[in-house]
Amino acid sequence: MPTLLIVDDEMPQVRALSAIISKMRPKYEIVARTDGESAWQAIRQRPVDALITDIRMPNMDGMELIDRVHRYNPQLKLILLSGYGQFEYAQEAIRCNVLEYLIKPIGQEAIHRVIEKLEAKWEEDKQRRLTESLFRGTLWRKLFEGKMNPEEYAELKKTVVKDGPGLALTLDFPEAAAPFAKGELENELERRFSVLASQAVFHSSSISRRFVGMLWLSPYYSVRASESYGKIRAIVDDVVNSAELALSSGVSDVHPNLFENAEKAYQEAQLAASLAFYETNQPLIRYSAIHEFVDPNSHNVSFSAARIAEGIRSGNRQLVSEDIHHWITDELKRRRLSPEHFKTECANNLIQVLNKLDSLIQESEKHRLSEKARQSMASAKDWMELRSRTMDWINEVADGVQQLLGDTHGTIIKRCQEYMRMHFNEDLSLERVSAKFSFNASYFSNYFKMKTGTRFSDYLLGIRVGKAKEMLLNSSELIEDIAHEVGFSNSAYFIRMFKRETGVSPAAFRRLSGSR
Q: According to the UniProt entry, which residues carry 4-aspartylphosphate (predicted)?
């Protein structure tokens, strides 16, 4: 949604112009000011796409305003208003790339012509930026990954208007940014950050859902680091609120020559962003506020797999919960491991617990739980989610172990078998039967085989084929009907399974048995 700033010391003129434009383009945001100084402050505080300003105004006239704006943001479209044919300003207007010069009173036809001209320019700029962004993004990624050759470095340097003070910024989105079409988010970010940067370059990173920005700070902000960070924080908050996107971001230190130090600045911003795993309430983290992470090989682990495994065996959930809580809390206090190493360490610790429960868990189930631990920990977005997933995993293991230990005589399995014999003709699945007896499906499958010597699916097939034999011998029902009555939805599949179990087809079984 474009934002137009209208500046005129005659308020009726401002209202009339605003009303006409709003009627022509209801989605435009119109900002009104009555003097050049307040207009200049507005441009520094928020993104503006076009400035329509009178020339003669108190405090700061229109010519001084467009001169400042042109130096501050050359991409902002400028339109001059005047009550006279003051063509002595034409040379200055040309120098500042003024798009249109309107003489008051301004008719609707002139306004409509200016709006169409603005929209054509915006579309032209948009297409140019999209094309440049794709090429530029590839070069920036090569630079950050240390894969750039001298020719590419020289080509990328040409895209920088003028090297100078600036910083790197990373923005990590949890998912694709729905409010923006592909390729447009970079342009939207560049537009928003233009209020503090003489040049802002954003592109998607090789890291999924990450956008990287290089901001060459305007002269005003380049000597006001604290104010720059505050402005960046405000813009990030605005992106979060307006697009309803939860994101985390990291920002580097300010470097005197950003392009020359681009790789270092990116690494600083990337490291700062990684700390969002721990700082869940901080959408923007500064590199200067963090410390370096330690080598994971030199890390002292306070985790006791044997103690937690014993707590699972004995059914002491409170002990297990407290140990997990203390271990994670201890890690959070130190924050010495990078998030990726912390996730890996957590998964490895859980697998150690499995190894301590080796006699109670079959190999296939150990493999499944090990993979689940790795995948679940790796995809945790912050430490709170990691802690929650850890406890969910522990509880799943504990539930299965306690069910196995509590059924020493196989009573549950006997009840399951009885239930299967009574309901064999229904849509009977492993998930349905395990849920009926409050089992985890995977645990139930392994336990069933351990107690009966056969798989659940084979046991159910035996019941159904046995019942089908009875019906083939004692009735003249069609084979297709018998298949449905014993629980098969597909008669061809029934015939195939029957032959696998008995060695003959249902029709041959009936014929050989001499039944009707």
A: 54
Q: Which of 243, 228, 335, 356 is nearest to 280 (CA)?
A: 335
Can you read off the two tokens belonging to residue 275?
Answer: 């700390």
d(CA 210, CA 231): 21
- H-assigned helices in 407-455: 411-422, 430-436, 441-452
Query: How many Å separate Cα 169 from the centre of its chain?
Result: 17
Kindly report the pTM of this predicted structure: 0.52
Q: Are 303 and 327 in contact (CB under 8 A)?
A: yes
- Listed as own residue / partner, the contacts of 203-210 with beta carbons closer than 8 Å and 24 or more positions apart are 203/133, 203/136, 203/137, 203/140, 203/141, 204/137, 205/141, 205/144, 205/170, 206/141, 206/145, 207/172, 209/172, 209/173, 209/174, 209/175, 209/176, 210/170, 210/171, 210/172, 210/173, 210/273
* C-alpha triplet 510, 511, 516: angle, nearest 5°: 70
Q: Is 494:488 a contact under the CB 8 Å cutoff?
A: yes
pLDDT digits (tens, 9 = 90+) for 288-316: 877 666 555 555 556 788 888 888 877 88
Q: How many CA atoms lie within 13 A of 215 on its CB side?
A: 32
Taking alpha carbons only, the member of 302, 290, 292 closest to residue 331 is 302
